[in-house]
Amino acid sequence: MTYPRTLFEKIWDRHVVVPETADTPAILYIDLHLIHEVTTPQAFDELRQRGLGVARPQQVLATLDHSTPTLPANPDGSHPYVTEQAARQVATLERNCHEFGIELNGWGSAHRGIVHVIGPEYGATQPGMTIVCGDSHTATHGAFGALAFGIGTTEVGHVLATQCLLQRKPKTLAIEVDGELRPGIGAKDLILHIIGRIGIGGGTGHVIEYRGKAIEALSMEERMTVCNMSIEAGARAGLIAPDATTYAWLQGRPKAPAGADWDRAVQAWHELASDPGARYDRVVHIDAGEVMPTITYGTHPGMVIPIGEAVPDARDEQERKALDYMRFQSGQSLLGEKVDVVFVGSCTNSRLSDLREAAAVLRHKPVATGVRMLVVPGSVQIKAEAEAEGLDKVFRQAGAEWREAGCSMCIGMNGDIAGPGQLVVSTSNRNFEGRQGPGVRTVLASPRIAALAAVHGCITAPDDAMEIAA
Ligand SMILES: CC(C)[C@H](C(=O)O)[C@@H](O)C(=O)O
Ligand code: SF4
Q1: What is the 106 CA–ligand 1 centroid distance (Å)?
Q2: What domains are defined for the chain?
Q3: From the CA of 137, how far away is ligand 1's center (Å)?
Q4: Which one of 116, 138, 349 would you pick to mutate in the ligand 2 pocket, going by the greatest count of ligand atoms within 8 A of its CB?
Q5: Distance of alpha carbon 374 from alpha carbon 362, whole angstroms
Q6: Which positions bind [4Fe-4S] cluster (predicted)?
Q7: In 235-316, which ranges are continuous DSSP H helix?
Q8: Is the C or the N end of the chain the one with fewer CB within 10 Å?
């Protein structure tokens, strides 16, 4: 039977080993399993206890990112872990990868970095694949037209042992972004705007396919920023159909197919795009022209406003609490709000283009007195590329800290945190209470808005945004 299918259905159909029934989820074959130090120790212990091996070690790729300090190594070569637990997690993954024959991009590797940054960069992430990782931002890989799910530690064990995952078939949600983004408006503004529109539960139970002219016009880095935050809208995954932009970005990367294999692969990838007439369970239209520079004002990524607009009224008790925590009031503007810390990094915005965007602002002005700015490349490779074009100097000369690759201040588990009550403008994806340290108040924004906050010492709108609003 042939009928028009969506990108999601095509990947799903190709990977179903046993279809789902009313009582049992489907068994889905997994092409690539990415692992990091936080969500794997128990999974490997379980394997050992049950005398199981890793089914396809060559389809597992490991990195160190969450617990790794971003300060340079000590003179004796050891790393300045912030807690014993962090050191233990890293040592455990090193041991487990060694024991089970898994490639670890650990300390000293040119391919180490945030798991969702290195998969694509290494060419391991490819269109049409099923990809899992014990990490909620796995949807990032959907930017390549891969079906990428975040999974729990128990499932990490299942996939290690069987290379398969039990999964209920999700529904599909098409987000059609029509028209063109205004000049100066980026992928981060777009995804924050989308989450603001559909809400943090708007994608629940669905795989989102981002479509439309404005999506096709995005670079791969920007597509990753968009797909990365799919989970913040509650979605199981986010997808964008692969196209010429995707192929150009992937070609020549270490793990990408080469020679005749490359040509065959591209031909197959070309078939993946949703067929004309394919049906989605839901469709949402977004007008790209309406997207303004967007920031969060609350404690979840759905509480967003265009940067120049006033904080809206709290709609419920939870939002009232969020405003209290953030020390913001309905009706106030966030422009001019004093900023203590600025963080540029995370799997949302730590790629070379993000660093360039921030550096472009800092080239003209130093970081304001009293503001601490941390710039953390997503991978060792990005760090090297940024240094090759002198971005590290721009940041350092402006007074920012230039760090080693890792998750850093996106999540307060590696030593990079802010102080209680401090206001952080962060390019990461989560602004939950205490996420960046106890009592820390987080405003999510694009690299450009973050850098502007750093140089002005307060939340500042770009000139062009004010012109648009006028
Ligand atoms: C530590 C990990 C389990 C967690 C996740 O799943 O997302 C982290 O990456 C995060 O961003 O909160
Ligand atoms: S950068 Fe942040 S969101 Fe991304 S994987 Fe690391 S902790 Fe999670």
Answers
A1: 19
A2: 7-167 (3.30.499.10), 171-240+265-289 (3.40.1060.10), 293-469 (3.30.499.10)
A3: 7
A4: 116
A5: 13
A6: 347, 407, 410
A7: 244-250, 259-270
A8: N
